[in-house]
Amino acid sequence: QVQLVESGGGLVQAGASLRLSCLVSGRTFINTVVGWFRQAPGKEREFVGHITWTGTSTYYADSVKGRFTISRDNAKSTVSLQMNSLKPEDTAVYYCAARTTVTPEYNYWGQGTQVTVSS
C-alpha cells in the first residue's frame, strides 16, 4: 500500500505563489509515478502534472505549463507542486495520487488540500 498526504493549501491573492507538498509513504518502487490533480466545484477532475519516483521525467497540463513545477525529494519522500502566478481559476481542491508506469490508473490518493485564489 502507498499512502499520500497533501499539505500546504491556503488562501492567496492572484499573482501569489504557493507550494504544496505530498508526503509519500508505504511501499514505493522505482516504477511509481506521482501525479497532481485538481477539482473545482462543478467541474471534472483535472490532471495537473506528474513526476516519476526515479529519473527526471515530468509532464504538465497546458493550463499550468510554465507556472507550476513538480519536484521530488527522495530523501524526504515528498513530491512538491510549486505554483506561481496563481489565478482565480486555479482555485480547487488539489490531490496527489500514485500509480505505476505500467498502468494508467491512479490507485492511491491523498485526502486533498484546498487552494483558493482571490482576485
Task: Flag low-confidence runs.
Answer: none
- The dominant shape is globular
Class by SSE composition: mainly beta
Strand content: over 45%
Task: Average the pLDDT over all residues and give the rounded result.
Answer: 93
What is the tally of beta strands?
11
Helix content: under 10%
Q: Radius of gyration over alpha carbons?
A: 13 Å
Please tally the helical runs, counting DSSP H or I stretches of 4 or more residues: 0
The ordered string of helix (H) and strand (E) elements is EEEEEEEEEEE
Distance between the termini: 40 Å
Main pleated sheet: 7 strands, mixed
How would you explain this protein's 3D organization?
The protein has 119 residues and is mostly beta strands. 0% of the residues lie in helices and 55% in strands. The strands form two sheets. Strands 2, 4, 5, 6, 9, 10 and 11 form a seven-stranded mixed sheet that branches. A hairpin with a 5-residue loop joins strand 5 and strand 6 (58-60). The model has no long low-confidence stretch (mean pLDDT 93).
Which characteristics define this entry?
119 residues; 4-stranded antiparallel β-sheet
Sum this structure up briefly.
The protein is an all-beta fold.
Please give the structural blueprint.
Elements: E1 2-7, E2 10-13, E3 18-26, E4 32-39, E5 46-52, E6 58-60, E7 68-73, E8 78-83, E9 92-100, E10 108-109, E11 113-118
Parallel strand pairs: 2-11
Antiparallel strand pairs: 1-3, 3-8, 4-5, 4-9, 5-6, 7-8, 9-10, 9-11
